[in-house]
TrEMBL record:
Listed EC numbers: 2.4.2.21
Keywords linked to the UniProt accession: Cobalamin biosynthesis, Glycosyltransferase, Transferase
Database matches in InterPro entries: Nict_dMeBzImd_PRibTrfase (IPR003200), Nict_dMeBzImd_PRibTrfase_bact (IPR017846), Nict_dMeBzImd_PRibTrfase_N (IPR023195), Nict_dMeBzImd_PRibTrfase_sf (IPR036087)
Pathway field: Nucleoside biosynthesis; alpha-ribazole biosynthesis; alpha-ribazole from 5,6-dimethylbenzimidazole: step 1/2
Name of the protein described by the UniProt record: Nicotinate-nucleotide--dimethylbenzimidazole phosphoribosyltransferase
HAMAP family documented for this protein: CobT (MF_00230)
Family matches, as Pfam families: DBI_PRT
Role according to the record: Catalyzes the synthesis of alpha-ribazole-5'-phosphate from nicotinate mononucleotide (NAMN) and 5,6-dimethylbenzimidazole (DMB).
High-level lineage: Bacteria, Pseudomonadati, Pseudomonadota, Betaproteobacteria, Burkholderiales
Family statement drawn from the similarity comment of this UniProt entry: Belongs to the CobT family.
Length: 362
């Protein structure tokens, strides 16, 4: 029988490389002809160029941005690796749906469509005696929480494959050309740290942070637990085996969503530590995924800076945030819009009749 994980996703990369030299040169020329000193918009220019390449146009326009909060519970949370109980996951999902969470208010502020995906929360959001559906909620639950990675694989190969397929199907149904990533799952900084350590080779102590607010002694205990989990799953060395051993259903579903968004040339806005760990897995499967990713911020969570360095990417913001949910992706959103508006709407030296740099006219 084929392994369901490898069966749903070819191990040979399929995603086309975006480095279209012709379009890149055209975009650069367009930026250089805007009425400003060459390069004076700094990172915004690099961002405009990247979005132009992703959307394959000199005049990119971001349409119907979709922020998806992938939610799931973690068996490992029972090992005291988080400062909060697992129940906070479902309670926060209710908070997202009620519009009161940080990501809810930021999404509202910026006009981002917000969807919460129940990928494996230990709670029934659609009980049999209640409504059949709820606005803003997609139920694609694999199981009520993963297994405890301390003793067994967090998920089976079949569960991992199903979650990835769910993520792909979810994105296929979403309109627009931008996907902003968010997540909710008590214990998921542990899963992200484990993936980082296993896939980058960094020591787990350097990948482990305070998550929801553990003190120094508790972070040291968390790192000890995670070290034991790594040992328990010594053989899980491939990206998908590691995801299966350590990941959450929200992370496997997000992985499918990222691969689908990349395959359909959408701009992917990455949030913090957990979403970056998922992108690390995606990058191992499809290196060209990275060209479609905009990294919104450097999280205060220990490990994130090293993870971004490992991927060779620079985030837009560094505000000391360590929340997740997609909050930083939402905060970075206006910068993406500004990058596009500069490309589309700013006058050129020629159109505005502004004199070029003296040396360029001789
Ligand atoms: C009230 C509350 C709201 C949150 N929103 C996001 N997270 C964040 O914290 C969790 C990860 O941290 P750890 O691994 O330490 O459990 C994730 O669910 C993440 O999105 C929250 C956490 C709490 C407590
Ligand atoms: O950076 C993140 O995504 C993060 C950090 C701490 C807790 N939850 C999420």
């Amino acid at each position: 029988m084929p392994n369901p994980v490898t069966a749903t996703h070819s191990l040979s990369p399929m995603l086309p490389d975006l480095s279209n030299a012709d379009l890149r040169a055209k975009l650069q020329q367009r930026l250089d002809q805007k009425t400003k000193p060459v390069g004076s918009l700094g990172v915004l220019e690099a961002l405009a160029l990247q979005i132009g390449l992703i959307l394959q146009t000199e005049t990119p326009s971001l349409q119907q941005p979709q922020l998806v909060v992938f939610a799931g519970d973690h068996g490992l949370a029972a090992r005291g690796v988080s400062a909060y109980p697992s129940d906070v996951t479902w309670q926060m999902v209710e908070n997202f749906l009620a519009g009161g969470a940080c990501v809810s208010v930021l999404a509202r502020q910026h006009g981002l469509a917000l969807t919460v995906a129940d990928c494996g929360v230990r709670h029934d959001f659609l009980p049999p005696d209640g409504p059949a559906e709820r606005a803003g909620l997609v139920v694609c639950k694999i199981a009520p929480g993963t297994a405890d990675a301390f003793v067994e694989e967090a998920m089976s190969a079949a569960q991992c494959a199903q979650a990835m397929a769910n993520g792909r199907a979810l994105v296929q149904r979403l309109p627009g050309n931008v996907l902003l990533l968010g997540e909710m799952g008590i214990g998921n900084t542990s899963a992200a740290s484990l993936l980082q350590a296993r896939l980058t080779g960094l020591d787990i102590a350097e990948c482990t942070g305070s998550g929801t607010g553990l003190d120094a002694a508790a972070v040291a205990r968390k790192a000890q637990v995670l070290r034991a989990v790594l040992l328990r799953h010594e053989a899980a060395t491939t990206p998908l085996a590691a995801l299966q051993a350590f990941g959450g259903f929200e992370m496997a579903t997000m992985l499918g969503a990222v691969l689908e968004a990349a395959a359909t040339n959408r701009v992917i806005v990455v949030d913090g530590f957990i979403t970056t760990a998922v992108v690390l897995v995606a990058h191992r499967l499809e290196p060209a995924v990275l060209q479609r990713c905009v990294f919104s911020h450097r999280s205060g969570e220990a490990g994130h800076a090293a993870l971004l360095r490992h991927l060779g990417v620079s985030p837009l913001l560094d505000l000391g945030l360590r929340l997740g949910e997609g909050s930083a992706a939402a905060l970075a959103w206006p910068l993406l819009q500004s990058a596009c508006v500069v490309l589309r709407e700013m006058a050129s030296f020629a159109s505005a009749g502004v004199s070029q740099k003296a040396s360029d006219t001789h």
